[in-house]
Amino acid sequence: MALKLRLARGGSKKRPFYSIVVADVRSPRDGRFIEKVGTYNPMLPKDGERIVINKERVEHWLSVGALPTDRVLRFLDAEGIAKREARNNPNKAKPGKKAQERIAEQKQKEEDAAAAAAEAAASE
Question: Which residues are CB-neighbours of 70 under 8 A, at least 6 positions away?
Fold first, then answer.
């Protein structure tokens, strides 16, 4: 049985509240879970009691082989329980295919204009 440490949403509409749970990967997000190991309330300020985690139980489940989701791993990294490697995707910041084509066209027009100006200056 593959286990995940993940968030299960609760709370009302536009007032989210999440439980940090250990669940089988096949169970639905808000469905059956094995154990509740913490809570996350995004409505509270960042310096308050926004995240509450039972460290002993989380460490137990990690030792058994449960894998945290990216968001839960961020919480565990902030608590000092697990280490999250920083992600790096240098291609994400690049412009799209069409934008790159427009940039190349603009650069070509500028080079043509500069060459024409230099040719006009040389012929005078």
Answer: 84
